[in-house]
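Example (one chain per record):
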Amino acid sequence: DAFALADKIRTSVARFLNSDQFGGVKITFSLGVAEVQSGETILQTIKRADQSLYVAKNQGKNQVVVLEASA
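Predicted structure:
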């Protein structure tokens, strides 16, 4: 599942970047995720991923957001 993978990446990178190697600086980031749906073009999928990222940033950052394709 794309959400689970993206969240695992987010937490792993945050754990690595917040380690003592980097002076304990707190770094967070958000991910926008979209899975390709049947009948959808790659550009439509990329647009949904981009929209997902903006939703994540507007909701407070440091999270993963998935927007499903509209019917």
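Caption: The mean pLDDT is 86.
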